[in-house]
Amino acid sequence: MAENSTSAREAAYTEGVPCWVDAQLADVAAGERFYGELFGWSFRPSHGGTVWAYREGRSVAALAQKTDGRLPTVWTVYFATPDARALTVRIRAAGGQVVTAPVPVGELGVTALATDPEGAVFGLWQPGTHAGFGLRHAPGAFVWAELYARDTATANTFYGGLFHDALFGPDAEPDVGRAPVTTVFPALMPPHFLVHFGVVDCAAALGEVTRLGGRIQAGPFDTSYGTVGVAVDDQGASFAVLQR
């Protein structure tokens, strides 16, 4: 994950707030070329062969080498928590599943993977020296995560129960939305989170995706939170670009 946190940043990542994203790729060097050109990212090596991406010298994401070619090529969003193990207990009780039990990542923190009742995968992050994004809500950085669900009422109950304060509390400024899968994707597409990165011009960014060897799945289209384009990189990982 990324650099040491400050107390102000730590305070921003209360439980249930998206605090990090990473991509599992077969070819990390190719990922650096694709996303480096698309978003203006620079890269530095990190824990366990992962590379961190930086925009304006501040951490925005990580690219990780897939350990098994059968694993999906995918972007994952991580939600902050002060206690990953306790949260996994609550996830199971609410009808979700734990894919990967909490495990330390050096001194950086503790990570885990889980699914909601419909099978959408998300990560948990308990901070150590790394609290989360060094930069977000800006071009070339994380701005939004949309959950495409089969049953949005089930999703609201599950995530609202886990992360009520982050989603609905008096100080909530949620970076997560929920929509039916069929809003954008074919009906057979499984429920999933779609990570959105900020851009100045959505149409121009989609043009760059095509130039770099990726492809466009949908858009540009207007939403309540901005103009969105859904794309797939040159290795098969889906993501979105968001112009606000």
TrEMBL record:
InterPro entries to which the protein is assigned, alphabetical: Anthracycline_SecMetBiosynth, Glyas_Bleomycin-R_OHBP_Dase, Glyoxalase_6, VOC_core
Domain VOC: 17-127
Protein name, entry field: VOC family protein
A Pfam short name: Glyoxalase_6
Top-level taxonomic group: Bacteria
